Amino acid sequence: MRVAFGTVLDRAWGTTLGVVGQRKLSGQLDLRADDGKTYAIAFTDGVVVAATSPLASDSIARIALTSHLVSSSQIGEITRRLAAAPERDEVEVLAETTRLGVEHVAILRRKLTIARAARTFSVDRGEFEIVDEVGIPVRPDCSVPLGAVMFHGVRMNLSEQRLAEDLLELGTSYRLREISDDDLDGFQFGTDSGLIIDELREGTTLAALEANHRDVEPRTMKAMVYALVTCGACEAVGGKPVDRAAAHPPPPPLSRTITPTSRTVTEATLVSRTSTVRGNFASRPAVEMPRRSTVDLPRRPAVETHRAADITTPPTGISIKRSNAPTMMGQQANQAPHTSRTITAPRTITSRDRAAREIEALIATRIAMIERNADHFAVLGIVPEAPVEAVRAAYFSMARKLHADSLKEVGIVDEAGHGPRVLAQLNAAFMVLSDATRRRDYVSALKRGELTAVAPRARTGELDKSELAMEAFQRGELALRREQISEAVDELGKAARLAPQNLDYAALLAWARFCASEDKQSISGETRRALLRAIDRSSNPLNWHFLLGRIERILGRTREALAHFQEVLDVNPAHQEAAAEVRVLLTRTKESTESKGLFGRKR
């Protein structure tokens, strides 16, 4: 029976989920995005017990790999076994294939549920409904606090625009309610969040938090506040209504060039095969809501559709082509095959279209800024007083969108090279504003009216070797985070060649090559030497100790791996990843010892 329904834009998405948690509802939330993808979250008494996502990045193999519970060499066998047993529990299949221990299986289930439920925060437009029956597989031994889903979803998936809108609606001043330590642990903020929690108990604002904790990424603090407020653990005042319908208008119809072929597309082929959500929203009749679990989630009025003529086009001189696969609509019997014709018809706008428009607008506005010699702060979209964390966040947010792979993914063909030109300017701005000395000199030059002495060099991208090396290093770091290992090796190799004296560049390059190598044993000696040199002379030895620990763990050298991870924890006890690695290794050691004790002796 339907309990509630609405759209993603009715309110902050966390508020919608928070109602489920605070009212301790049981049932299932089904979310259908405008691009046709479907997601589902199952609840029991307000606790998340299962979730599904159609995205490949949320597959069990990918989650297990990124959680370092399996190796890349095992992925092929895992995939084959999952395909051969689609009716079986996917976690059990993976556990049998890789011989995961009981504790690791529980960890994987929780990570999988959190990642898939949190992915709903990435949906910008779509409709949802909450029903009082569950249609996706649920395991009794898997439950995840809603706060952990909120925190992960906001931190990893919510767009910057929606995060700003949601926080504006939720409030500007916050005070933590009375809450137990166990309940706080359920949010999975990490052990280094204690000082932030203490400030929230006294009452504070986001601006104050960011000023007092410059070592913490601003988005992480925003995600903490967002999760606490929407879960009812934190009071918020000063909220303002947000007209999301105006901020996110429905996409206009597009003019497309259609090339008909002899292929006939049936209605069945339009149904997504990746969704595990039951039924379809339109087929469910509206029913009277049950007394116990009725939720008041009013929908906003429908928004008037915009016409194509209402959309602002890029400035004159900016020409960016879009590469789109034609839409197959069938072919009339008297029509010759492969005859091109141009028609104008409304169609469903996909997330790919929206991403392309966002990138095109970004390029157009930044090109206009470059042409009028805008300063670095304006190009990055930050205020002159912005802390270095804000500089990094703004830079990486735009740099990811302008990456060649991102342009290709959304079908943008940038023949004029505007994207690289904007990226060069962003790189120059980041190099200056992220360095205290350069930033101070730059601000002084701005005040003296000497911007033209600085801007032309940045505009042409003629950076010195050290700047080019840092730029390549940052691209390599970004590629590693995106698991694009071959690209990371190329970029980090450039950085190491441009700055051969920089041991950090050499160390991360060695790690990337180790990750890319199929024969990790043969390359391990060279990798160890590079990381040990960085440990001896680097300003950040903990990072290299941690990576050395991972190398030893991958190679099966448990004692050496534990030594490196413990070295990290001795200096930084709050290092969550090192602590998790130690727990996993100790569990494996215990299981190995018990196994030998039972079966290892010969009689």
Word description of this protein:
By secondary structure, this protein is an alpha+beta fold. It folds into 3 domains: 2-244, no CATH class; 249-260 and 306-325 and 348-463, Orthogonal Bundle (Helix Hairpins); 540-603, Serine Threonine Protein Phosphatase 5, Tetratricopeptide repeat (Alpha Horseshoe), CATH 1.25.40. Helix content is 51%, strand content 9%. It contains 26 helices and 12 strands. It has a 5-stranded antiparallel sheet. The chain has a 3-stranded antiparallel sheet with strand order 7-6-8. Strand 3 (38-44) and strand 4 form a beta hairpin. Mean pLDDT is 78; it is low at 254-295, 298-317, 325-346, 452-463 and 598-603.
Approximate shape: globular
Q: Which structural category do the helix and sheet elements fall into? A: alpha+beta
Number of separate helices: 26
Q: Beta-strand level of the residues, as a percent range? A: 5-15%
By oligomeric state, this entry counts as: single chain
Mean pLDDT: 78
Number of domains: 3
- For the largest beta sheet, what order do the strands appear in spatially? 1-5-2-3-4
Q: Which spans of ≥5 residues are poorly predicted at pLDDT below 50?
A: 254-295, 298-317, 325-346, 452-463, 598-603
How helical, in percent, are the residues? 40-55%
Question: What about the largest sheet?
Answer: 5 strands, antiparallel
Radius of gyration: 26 Å
Ends apart, CA distance between termini: 63 Å
Based on DSSP secondary structure assignment, what is the total number of beta strands?
Answer: 12
